[in-house]
Amino acid sequence: MSARRIEGEGEVLVSVEGVYKHFPIRQGIVFKKEVGRVHAVDGVDLRVRRGETLGIVGESGCGKSTLARCITGLHPVTSGRILFEGTDITGLPKSGLKAFRRDVQMIFQDPYGSLNPRRRVGSIIGDPFAVHATAAGAERKRRVQELMELVGLNPEHYNRFPAEFSGGQRQRIGVARALALRPKLIVCDEPVSALDVSIQAQVVNLLKDLQDEFGLTYVFIAHDLSLVRYVSDRVAVMYLGKVAEAAAVEDVYVRPRHPYTAALLSAASVSDPDAAERAERIVLTGDVPSPIQPPPGCRFHPRCPKAAGRCVEEDPPLIRRDGDAPGHVTACHFPVEPGESLAGREASIAQVSTQPDLPEVEQ
C-alpha cells in the first residue's frame, strides 16, 4: 500500500523467529490422551518493517490465520519467538500483553461474526477506550464518532446495532475499532473476502488512505493474488505451515522461484483477455497432505513437478538463491529458472497417502 520499498530499508517492527504452533489432538472420554498434533505453523521466520505492508498468501489450511493470531498474541506459540520492537511478546504476562495490544490490532475476516449483534456500534468501537481506560463518558462518545466519520460512517448512527448496517459498513466498524488506540501494527486477516467486489475496492482504498495518514504497518492475508500485489510491498507464500518463498512483491510476481508460487500465479485471474489466452496453467496433481502427518523433506514434493530424491530426504532451507534479488528467499532445492515452463508437467514422485494414521485409544 505504501510506496514500494527495497528489502533491508527501514526499522524492523515485528520479527518472527522459528515460530511453531501445534494443536494437540486428544482422544478418550474420561482420560484424554494426546494421539497426534496439527502442525499449523512449523518453523516460520519473517520480518515486518515499520510502515510497510507484508502480504501473506497460500491455500486454505496453510497456516496464514494461525500465524496472524500468534503475531497478535491470540494464540500462544508452541516454540520460537515473536519480537515486537525488540521485545519478546511470547512470554509476556497478562499486564504486558494488555500494553502490547494497544500497539497491535486485528481486522477479522467476517465483518458480522466479529461484532456482538446485541451491542450498539458506539459501545463496540468504544471498547478499546474502556478496556485501556483512555476515555470515558462524553469524551469517549466524541472520539468514537470521530472514528466513525474517519472510516466513512455516519456519526449519527452511533446507537444502531450491527444488523442495521451492510457488509461493507460492518467491516468499516471493525476498522474503526482497530484504529481506536492508534496502533502501530494492524493484522488484516482476509478483511475483504466476505464482501462484494465493488465493496472490496472501497475497503482496500480506505485501508490504503489510513496507512498513508497514520503511518500504519500492515500484515495483509488474502487469497486474491491480484489484490495482494496491489496492496503489498513484500509477499510471503506459505504452504502447509512453512514459508515457501518471500520477496519484494514484483520479484515474486515477475520471477517466481518456488514451483508452488509459480502454480499459484498461473491460476490467478487476468483482466487482459489476450494475456489470459497466452497464460500457461500449471495444474498440481494430488491432494494437500495432512498437517497432522506432513510429508518428510520438502512438504511440497508429493505435488511438485520438479521433485527429486533429495526433496524427499532433505527439507530445503529458506535462503537466497543465485541470481535472485536481495531479500528474495526460496525454500526449494531446484528453483524455477527464468523462462522455464512447468505447464503440463506432473508430479515426478508418487503421491503418498495424506490420511494420518492415528492410534486407537481405549475408552
Care to describe what's here?
The protein has helices at 64-71, 94-100, 121-131, 137-150, 167-179, 197-214, 225-231, 249-254, 259-267, 273-278, 309-313, and strands spanning 12-27, 33-49, 53-57, 79-84, 87-88, 104-107, 185-189, 217-221, 234-239, 242-248, 319-320, 329-330. Strand 7 (185-189), helix 6 and strand 8 form a beta-alpha-beta unit. It contains eleven helices and twelve strands. The chain has a domain at 117-182. The chain has 363 residues and is α/β, with parallel strands linked by helices. The model has no long low-confidence stretch (mean pLDDT 88). Residues 25-265 form the ABC transporter domain. It comes from Actinomadura fibrosa.
Summary tags:
363 residues, alpha/beta, eight-stranded mixed beta sheet, ABC transporter ATP-binding protein
Brief summary of the model shown:
The protein contains 11 helices and 12 strands. It is α/β, with parallel strands linked by helices. Residues 343-363 are annotated as: Disordered.
Ordered list of secondary-structure elements with their pairings:
Layout lengths: L11 E16 L5 E17 L3 E5 L6 H8 L7 E6 L2 E2 L5 H7 L3 E4 L13 H11 L5 H14 L16 H13 L5 E5 L7 H18 L2 E5 L3 H7 L2 E6 L2 E7 H6 L4 H9 L5 H6 L30 H5 L5 E2 L8 E2 L33
Parallel strand pairs: 3-8, 3-9, 6-7, 7-8
Antiparallel strand pairs: 1-2, 1-4, 4-5, 9-10, 10-12, 11-12
Helix pairs in contact: 3-4, 3-5, 4-5, 5-6
